[in-house]
């Protein structure tokens, strides 16, 4: 994989670069928010590792900016901050996962592997269908009534899981585990936030409510032509 590491700490940056290159990855580095944003916007990467605290800005703004510009490259955020609200904010600006410092190389690679698995189709399928809604697994776009709709990585992975499990109740715990590969924290609302984002984009193109909220149980994805 071609990976961008945005990290100002030279010790951490050198360690992460060495671990990634040992696994056969092609690694580019940036030491500032500005340089990281520029490289992310003007180059094609398979993964971005992004520190939160940078000398000229922060990882929140970098992640939000590249998502606004249409960059869908998976992002793993690194931070020494352990607070739950920090993790929620990271997910809300479009990051795919969060890893707290200090960490070991095995955990880093496990996180990257998990993100890569979630970002890749599970099999040779090219498209999923659910009534008038289609999911293009190659371009990673949602299509409703023949209109293509761009999604963030988190929105896309959530949609794929919903469509593959349509017609049954899915709990927030199940979504946290299978879409984000993390333990669900009842004190956070990031799952509801992403469901809200996905619903909004669907409602811009269809009057049908594909995602039904099942009180105290979870959600059910339904097709409009079943």
TrEMBL record:
One of its GO terms (cellular component) is cytosol. Keywords: DNA-binding, Phosphoprotein, Transcription, Transcription regulation, Two-component regulatory system. The modification 4-aspartylphosphate is found at residue 51. Residues 125-223 form the OmpR/PhoB-type domain. It comes from the Bacteria. Signal peptide: none annotated. CDD domains: trans_reg_C. Residues 2-116 form the Response regulatory domain. The keyword Isomerase does not apply. Residues 125-223 bind DNA. Coiled coil: none annotated. GO terms for molecular function: phosphorelay response regulator activity; transcription cis-regulatory region binding. SUPFAM superfamilies: CheY-like. Gene3D superfamilies: 3.40.50.2300, Winged helix-like DNA-binding domain superfamily/Winged helix DNA-binding domain. The keyword Nucleotide-binding does not apply. One of its GO terms (biological process) is regulation of DNA-templated transcription. This is DNA-binding response regulator.
């Amino acid at each position: 994989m071609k990976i961008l590491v945005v990290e100002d700490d030279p010790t951490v940056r050198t360690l992460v670069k060495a671990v990634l290159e040992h696994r056969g990855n092609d690694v580019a580095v940036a030491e500032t928010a500005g340089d990281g944003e520029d490289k992310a916007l003007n180059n094609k990467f398979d993964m971005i590792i992004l520190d939160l605290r940078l000398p000229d800005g922060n990882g929140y703004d970098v992640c939000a900016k590249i998502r606004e510009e249409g960059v869908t490259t998976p992002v793993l955020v690194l931070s020494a901050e352990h607070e739950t609200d920090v993790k929620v904010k990271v997910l809300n600006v479009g990051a795919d996962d969060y890893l707290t410092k200090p960490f070991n190389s095995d955990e880093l690679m496990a996180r990257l592997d998990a993100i890569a698995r979630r970002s890749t189709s599970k099999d040779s399928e090219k498209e999923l269908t659910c009534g008038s809604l289609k999911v293009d697994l190659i371009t990673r776009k949602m299509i409703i009534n023949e209109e293509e709709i761009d999604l963030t990585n988190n929105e896309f992975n959530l949609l794929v899981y919903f469509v593959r499990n349509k017609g049954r109740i899915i709990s927030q715990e199940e979504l946290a585990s299978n879409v984000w590969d993390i333990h669900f924290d009842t004190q956070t609302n990031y799952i509801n936030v992403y469901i809200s984002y996905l619903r909004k984009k669907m409602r811009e193109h269809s009057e049908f409510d594909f995602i039904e909220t099942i009180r105290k149980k979870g959600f059910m994805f339904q097709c409009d032509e079943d």
